[in-house]
Amino acid sequence: MILRMLFRPPAIDDAPTAKGGARVSRRWRPLRRVLIWLRWFALRCLLLMAALVLFYALINPPTTWTIVKESRDHQIAPRDWADIEDIAPVMLRSAVAAEDANFCLHWGFDMTEIRNVIRSGGSGGASTITQQTAKNVYLWQTRSWPRKALETVFTPMIEAFWSKRRILEVYLNVAEFGPGVFGITAAAREYYGTTPDRLTRVQAARLAAVLPAPKSRSPHQASRRSRAIADGAATIARDGRAECFQTGGDS
Predict the structure, then answer these.
(1) Residue 66 half-sphere exposure, CB side, CA atoms within 13 Å?
(2) Dist CA 182 CA 169 (whole Å)
(3) pLDDT per residue over 188-215, tens digit each?
(4) Interatomic CA distance for residues 162 and 58, integer angstroms
(5) Is residue 107 within 8 Å of residue 113, measured between CB atoms?
(6) pLDDT at 95
């Protein structure tokens, strides 16, 4: 009954609305109907999106559109969910250092980085971990204005309903680390024959280094980027930018 009321199309009322009892002009009735339907549709879409965000705040996403699409071209490595407590703290810090150094300081959009990109005349590079989580879990990878618009709506919802620890946990479990390799458990096993909780500082940095381009970068070789990530992870630990996702006992 509640769902029927929420998603029942709106009734179009042409009753008198103007002062003095004058009816809405026939000329504007079609536009008024369109606006009412658009408002009804937008509200229901927002409610559905909020429900999906709340659902995955408690339930681990079983798969994503990207994984389903990738399975057509590659064999998908076995995936096992890793709770954030079972991921080495240095891996958490390395992912943040690589993708979103201000993860604990923003509400989903890093306005400082966005302004820097605009100032430099660039067109990318300011996407946060929350934005990437929204894209990876709910949307598709191909760049388009509709996808960006939906990502912009999903991002603050995720920040509102999920903790930072939950955002980082989901991100690392659905991120692509190579062709057919999704999630930190599969990546640790496929590349290093270990588990997420046993990743070393070097391994964590190398895995984080492939995240922007998992199909063209290898976690088996050291690089200038991986060394910078290792240093950045140590800096984040020292200056307190890991406090939102790291507990006091983590090291």
Answers:
(1) 24
(2) 13
(3) 999 999 999 999 999 999 999 999 899 8
(4) 9
(5) no
(6) 97
